[in-house]
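I am still getting used to backbone structure tokens and would like to learn alongside you. Please make up or recall a protein chain and show it to me in full. Would you write everything just below, so we can both look at the same thing?
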Amino acid sequence: MLLDGVHIDKQFYREGGAVDEVLRKLVLATELTGHFRLLPHQRIILWRWSEKDDTSAFSKALGADLEDLLVEKVLSAHKEPTHVARTFQIYAQQYHGSVVIAYVGRSNGLGPILSAASTLPVISVPASVQSFPADVWSSLRMPSAVPAATVLDPGNAIDLALNILSASNPRLYAHKRTKVEDRTVNVVPL
């Protein structure tokens, strides 16, 4: 980190900097990071159309250390469109700054419907794509002003949601950055 032309990272310590200067830099870094704020209602809203849907792949991809981020809602846009619209507006206010994953089968219209009705990012995951590949077109061919993304793999949908949320959440940024660094570090065992 650079502040007023001075680095306040651990490199100064590594290079044998004076202890009082190291302490001053640590205190300053602590004060600065103390201003970080997490969005208290930031979540991944997993919206699905049936209680029968197997959502274990989403939970597994999220992992136990981030399971508190997941909020699930079961409600069909085809069977109860008015109720979906009202409920979604409540969720968008309650969980502002969140990402929605629409996990639906058949026509896959839920993601685009939710995307058109909100500023929350929406990721469609077509549940029936293995059995009915043509169903994916309901999530891919969008009219203008309907910015819904479509991802086929639940794990990749979770990763995309975490990437979006990490832009404003230091906890998630650190989580994602650690995984990126673990994948990109080349270590040769001796």
Remarks:
- The mean pLDDT is 84.
- The first strand starts at residue 2 and ends at 3.
